[in-house]
Amino acid sequence: MKVAIFSTKIYDRHFLDAANQEAGANHELVYFETRLAAQTASLAEGFPAVCAFVNDDLGSETLKILANQGVRLIVLRCTGFNNVDLETAAHLNIKVLRVIAYSPYSVAEHAVGLILLLNRKLYRAYNRVRDDNFALDGLLGFDLRGRTVGIVGTGKIGLIFAQIMQGFGCHLLGYDAYPNDKFTGIGDANYVELTELLAKSDIISLHCPLLPETTNLINETTIAQMKRGVMLINTSRGKLIDTKAVIEGIKSGQIGYLGIDVYEEEEKLFFKDLSNTVIQDDTFQLLQSFSNVVITAHQAFFTENALNDISRTTIANLTDFEQGKPLKNEVSLAK
Ligand code: NAD
What we know:
It is built from twelve helices and twelve strands. By secondary structure, the chain is of the alpha/beta class. The protein folds into two domains: about 1-100 and about 305-320, Rossmann fold (3-Layer(aba) Sandwich); about 105-295, NAD(P)-binding Rossmann-like Domain (Rossmann fold). The strands form two sheets. A seven-stranded parallel beta sheet has the order 8-7-6-9-10-11-12, sandwiched between helices. A five-stranded parallel beta sheet has the order 2-1-3-4-5. The structure holds nicotinamide-adenine-dinucleotide. Nicotinamide-adenine-dinucleotide (NAD) binds next to helix 4 and helix 6.
């Protein structure tokens, strides 16, 4: 099957080519570096399938252009599908498939990495030692053992994150729209209402999807309900957080630490080398300037294991569609 693959980097090509070869699938993979949006959709002219990533814009305008050009299938190289207008896709008879699961350890372990960076101020320590500054002032941390960790969204990633934090000796609180027994089976883990989780947690980590009801879940009101000095971690989706409210929370001391791998306006920044340009996003620049904030650029998924899983599933999704097999990874409107 001929596929137009958008937002690709060298590593995407390497892993997708390897998975295509490994499966003996012979899909014709055509790579575009550019992001998919209405302005670039014409590149997919003549392709029955399009492959997209997290920051591609699959809103109604893009989908209509793709459909007019004969696209019948969209395969997402990610789990989240908040960037796809599913109603329009269904209306245009375009199937949308995704990678339902890939190494959840990649994201869960990255969230833990952000916690350790912040708590032990490892990002500052690393720079200090390189500068022959061996003083410890300003690097004081706290033990994770005995702290309460609140996990919002206890699905595949949230569960692994919970298991790791339990290994540190933390108490676990969970909030999920659909609670499951696997979470309560981990150590002393308990489900509570969101307000209780916010009020009792020393560390809050977000692992729920971006949906209308979770957009700006972290806002002025919910920040005010948190423990003073809380550590907030977001490896899920940028729009879960109202960044301006978080900035106010940091300035007032209500939020003591912020670790994020996602940012609400990240599509203008992430996955690009902008080191020779002047960043125009003042909110992002302000956030960067705080000494108790660490930001990574949507790299939580970026492990060999995860990229292998993503590529193999993407190739299998193309093959399933081409061969008329049941589409087990289809994103349907109901989900
Ligand atoms: P999952 O579907 O296994 O788990 C999501 C959990 O959130 C489920 O238990 C679900 O019931 C819960 N949930 C749904 N609505 C909720 C609500 N309103 N409030 C609270 N919880 C709610 O998904 P996953 O594989 O664990 O991934 C979680 C998220 O992580 C994804 O949606 C994606 O946005 C993000 N993610 C980020 C990266 C990255 O590189 N930073 C990579 C992969 C996934």
